[in-house]
Description:
Layout: H1 3-24, E1 34-38, E2 43-45, E3 51-56, E4 62-69, E5 74-75, E6 82-84, E7 87-91, E8 99-108, E9 114-123
Parallel strand pairs: 2-9
Antiparallel strand pairs: 1-3, 3-7, 4-5, 4-8, 6-7, 8-9
Bound molecules: copper (II) ion.
Copper (II) ion is lined by residues 24, 31, 109, 111, 113.
Amino acid sequence: MCILSRRRILAVASITMAAIWLAHGSPLSAHDMLVKSMPETGSSLVESPQEIALKFSGKPAAVLVRLLALDGTELNGVGDPAIDGRWVHIPVTEMLPDGSYKLTFRITSRDAHVIDGSIDFSVRHVPAPAQ
Ligand SMILES: [Cu+2]
């Protein structure tokens, strides 16, 4: 490789690094995102869950959650979230009747960015078979 093209590659690389730095505060820490949930978003449960668990790409520094009905009404029924490494466990403190729900979350990720998101799920009890 000639010296000129190597210099050009270095220049492109440092511009890219600078762009990442400006966009994100630091190239060494990415903001965290939801990587898994129980229940999974979009799932239909046959009974009220006892817990909702969210897994993030890194350990969140702080978490706020809200349980909403389909029309956006905030519901009781979830307790304080507990952070356990990358997992956040949210106890469901009341039986959720059949219906559709949205759990919204707001986390403060390790790079101090605030990330909002939500998962949707529904509860549909399966009727007992007719005798
Ligand atoms: Cu970030």
